[in-house]
Amino acid sequence: MSQEHCILIGAPLDCGKKRKGCLMGPDAYRTAGLAEAIRDLGHTVEDRGNVAPAPFTPKEHPKLVAYEENIAWTESLADASEAAMKDGLPLFLGGDHALSLGTVLGAMRHADSVERPLFVLWLDAHTDFHTPQSTDSGNLHGTPLGYVTGRKGFDGFPSIANPLPHENVAIIGLRSVDAAERAAMQETNVTYVDMRAIDETGIAKPLATFLEKVEAANGLLHVSLDVDFLDPSIAPAVGTTVPGGATQREGHLVMEMLHDSGLMTSLDLVELNPFLDERGRTASLMVDLAASALGRRVFDRPTRAF
User: Looking at residue 25, what is its pLDDT?
Assistant: First the structure.
């Protein structure tokens, strides 16, 4: 197994939706032993602490939640992401999924600088393909893929010179998609795999197909793992619980396949809300999944008592 220089970056961002608690996520990952788990696998770890948003002036919006704050986080996280990717493999500790507005943008900028294509694997119950105009909730954690693929309506956000091509995106684990998102998604060639398809044919085949595409293009791969990708019976610490999610075995299979591929160049761990957790079980599971993505095998996993 090749040694990675893993860079931990806390993103205590809690403005992508109304329900609070994700700002505690970065500390929960640290407390659950993420750095120690990574070191035990033979990698080096550098913790760069928590990012703060760029300066901003909040304004009242009739629908959108914390619009200016989300822009400010996007600016600072894009800078942190681009800088970290030059030095190693960053792991962004969230924080809600609005953090990916910035982390993916930074990865895109880095990919442009090294003249390689970026691919994004989105492990999520939702497509997060909204725009500020199409979202009914006003929660911008449902917009990152809309933003980075160049959908219109993100006024004030950093401009994107080269939007992420739809064919470079795969969303796996879908089971809650708004009508507006479904209509927009069906007009693209984004790869999307819902839980019915996983039930019918398994999770390994569509993932392997996507990873083959990344490898053939000599691409960089940004992985964004939302807690709600997992079934809430095993990962309750999320404000957007949707029954019928991935099992613990499916989650580890995805992560082990990512490690086997050697393609992952950055990782988001998002939507962990420790306020909703049960004795840290979700944080511990997410740490275990990250460890699997970095080389821990099934027979190396610790036994936990909850």
Answer: 98
